[in-house]
Amino acid sequence: MSEPLLHLTDVGFAWPGQPALLDIPAFSLARGETLFLHGPSGSGKTTLLGLLGGVHRADRGSIRLLGCELGGLSSAARDRFRADHSGYLFQQFNLLPFLAVRDNVTLPCRFSRLRAERARQRHAGVTQAATELLRRLGLPDDLHARRASSLSIGQQQRVAAARALIGQPELVIADEPTSALDADSREAFINLLFEECRAAQASLLFVSHDRSLAPLFDRSLSLLDLNRAARLPEIR
Ligand SMILES: Nc1ncnc2c1ncn2[C@@H]1O[C@H](COP(=O)(O)OP(=O)(O)OP(=O)(O)O)[C@@H](O)[C@H]1O
Ligand SMILES: [Mg+2]
């Protein structure tokens, strides 16, 4: 009935001077859905996330997020749209090491007025929103003023999750965020992420090659099945 949060039609992409990497006839993500996307190293998972986030531009096809055609936006408008509506969680966390934990978390609200407003609506202020999120993700208050680089890997990962979630972006994109963790903390972290996405009514697109995580998600997909370009070598 309602339009999916994200919908791709006939999306093609190649890195300059390289053969087609992605040729995706159709792909959708529903509102509030948690999706596990797997595929071998080099199959194009991170590249696809870059297209969805508007970091790279597709060579052809349509990418609609919240009913908005990303290819129709100027690059400045695409950056703004991305900052407003998507939160990112990366393998290396990409925290600013010398910045305090809490300032790392509030960073997206500096780039997005919408997310700052949403954070303020639910809390006394943006900093308060960061504090609440960090607490819910299990990071004790005495760590919030510390430099991000002084935290353990597992703690930094929670900071990165809080940063992705602040101001309730509709789409949370996670690229191998658990690869630095042992199996037990991995599952615990994913469950926390689910809880927070649910609370914010966000959809989660989670990429990993660790397929043991797949059963935790609403749906699991292989990029190889989505992507016609990956099947070409077998046809020849
Ligand atoms: N900035 C870039 N410029 C040129 N080629 C690139 C660039 N980034 C990735 N590629 C190429 O695109 C292909 C897919 O890379 P990508 O990082 O999307 O794979 P992946 O599925 O995320 O792999 P992994 O599981 O190892 O993270 C690879 O062949 C890679 O060399
Ligand atoms: Mg990758």
The order of strands across the largest sheet is 6-7-8-3-9
CATH superfamily: P-loop containing nucleotide triphosphate hydrolases
User: Order of SSEs, N→C?
Assistant: EEEHEEHEHHHHEHEEHH
Which regions are unreliable across 5 or more consecutive residues at pLDDT < 50?
none
Give an overview in words.
It contains nine helices and nine strands. It has helices spanning 45-52, 75-85, 101-111, 113-122, 126-136, 153-165, 183-199, 223-226, 228-235, and strands at 6-13, 22-29, 34-38, 60-65, 68-69, 86-89, 171-175, 203-207, 219-222. With 236 residues, it is of the alpha/beta class. Helix 3 (101-111) packs across helix 5 (126-136) and helix 3 (101-111) runs parallel beside helix 6. It is globular. The longest helix is centred in the C-terminal third of the chain and has 17 residues, at 183-199. Helix content is 39%, strand content 20%. The mean pLDDT is 91. Strand 4 and strand 5 (68-69) form a beta hairpin. The chain has one domain: Rossmann fold, CATH 3.40.50. It has a five-stranded parallel β-sheet with strand order 6-7-8-3-9, with helices on both faces. It has a four-stranded antiparallel β-sheet with strand order 2-1-4-5. Bound molecules: adenosine-5'-triphosphate and magnesium ion (MG). Magnesium ion (MG) binds next to helix 1.
Give the structure's gist in a few sentences.
The chain is an alpha/beta fold and 236 residues long. It has helices spanning 45-52, 75-85, 101-111, 113-122, 126-136, 153-165, 183-199, 223-226, 228-235, and strands spanning 6-13, 22-29, 34-38, 60-65, 68-69, 86-89, 171-175, 203-207, 219-222. The chain has one domain: P-loop containing nucleotide triphosphate hydrolases (Rossmann fold, 3-Layer(aba) Sandwich), CATH 3.40.50.300.
